[in-house]
Amino acid sequence: MQIEISANSRKLHGTGANRRLRSQGRLPGVIYGGNGDAQSIELDHKDLYYKLKMEAFHASILSISIDGKKEQVLLRDVQMHPFKQQVLHIDFQRVRQDQKIHVKVPLHFINADIAPGVKLSGGMISHVATEIEISCLPKDLPEFITVDLSGMTAGSTLHLSDLILSENVEIPALLKGDNLPVATLIAKRGEAGESSEE
Fold this sequence. Notes:
There is one protein chain. 18% of the residues lie in helices and 39% in strands. By secondary structure, the protein is of the alpha+beta class. It folds into two domains: 4-94, CATH 2.40.240.10; 101-197, CATH 2.170.120.20. The protein is elongated. The N and C termini lie far apart (56 Å). Keywords: Ribonucleoprotein, Ribosomal protein, RNA-binding, rRNA-binding. Belongs to the bacterial ribosomal protein bL25 family. CTC subfamily. This is Large ribosomal subunit protein bL25.
């Protein structure tokens, strides 16, 4: 299910205009890229604030309706107030179906409890990364990538090359030769000493 956003064109610009907009419960933003010019928009702050809490909102193709005209976009940047629960500005990028996009998607770790290094050795899994950058066409964009930890033993590490990706999805870091760690299983401290004392 695609997430939909409603917006309106924004005519007034500048700090004063944006402050007035926020006082009315509206949020200034911009949409750029694709085949169109950059366009200033305004959105409902409350609606966007709650959508930003959705994981999928950050790693999905979104449908934005600007004055009734729909476009496909990606969330690119969010500026938050330093201490208030307030979004100050939001950026979206248009996507073209025939053009690859680079997006950070979250990692969902599963089966940690049945990993031999946890179940048998009492080790602990450390998530080195919680998201990774991928490259693909918009139609192939996954909401998340599942990381199966069931085979991990004490002292082992899962790398980017161990991730199972759907077809047509690439990890740019791997193409550059950077096979970065994703998760490690840390052995229980003093395990060897404890077993020898017994």
